[in-house]
Amino acid sequence: MGRLYGLATLLLRDKDLAEDAVQEALLSSWRGIRALRDPDAWDAWLQRGVVRACYRQAERDRQRSLARAKVVLLREPSATDVSGDLAARDEIEQGFRALPIEQRAVVALHFYAGLPLDEVARVMGTPEGTAKSRLHRGLQALKASFAASDRQARQRERSA
C-alpha cells in the first residue's frame, strides 16, 4: 500500500488527491478482481489501476493542478541558507510538476518504482515505444527547465 501511495503522490503531487486515487484504485481492483487472469501480474495490474485513477483524479482537478503548477517561487535564498539542497529540491519539484501527467507517470514508474521500460509500458497499458518516447520527452523537458533556471540564476548574479 505504501508504494502505491508513494506512486500516486509522485504523480499527483498532493497527498489528499493521492489518498483518494489509491482508495479508488483499490476499490476498483477489488470490484474487478475476476478480470485478473494471471495472479503473477497482480502488482502490475494494481499499479496500472493506480496510474489510471491518478489520470482520472488529475482530470477532475485539472484547473486546480494547472494553477498550482504555475506557481513559481521568486524569493532569493537567504544568507543563512548554507545548503543548496533545498533549492535543488524545489527546482526538481517545479520541473516535475510542469510535466504532463503521462510523462510524470513514466518518469515515476521508471525511476521511483524502478521498473524497466517494458514493465512501465505494461503497467500503463501502452506500447513500449510510447513509454520510451514519454520518458525521453519528460527528461528533455526537465533538462530544459533546469537549464532555464540556471540561466536565470546567472542573470541574477550578473545584475547584483
Number of domains: 1
The CATH class name reads: Mainly Alpha
The class by helix and strand makeup works out as: mainly alpha
**Rg:** 18 Å
Report low-confidence residues grouped into runs of 5 or more: 68-79
| Helix-residue proportion | over 70%
Order of helices and strands: HHHHHHHH
Characterization of the model:
The chain is mostly helical. The chain has one domain (2-159): Winged helix-like DNA-binding domain superfamily/Winged helix DNA-binding domain (Arc Repressor Mutant, subunit A). The protein has helices spanning 2-12, 15-31, 42-60, 62-69, 85-98, 101-112, 117-124, 128-159. Helix 1 runs parallel beside helix 3 (42-60).
Features:
single chain; 160 residues; mainly alpha; Arc Repressor Mutant, subunit A; 8 helices; 76% helix
What is the topology?
Layout: H1 2-12, H2 15-31, H3 42-60, H4 62-69, H5 85-98, H6 101-112, H7 117-124, H8 128-159
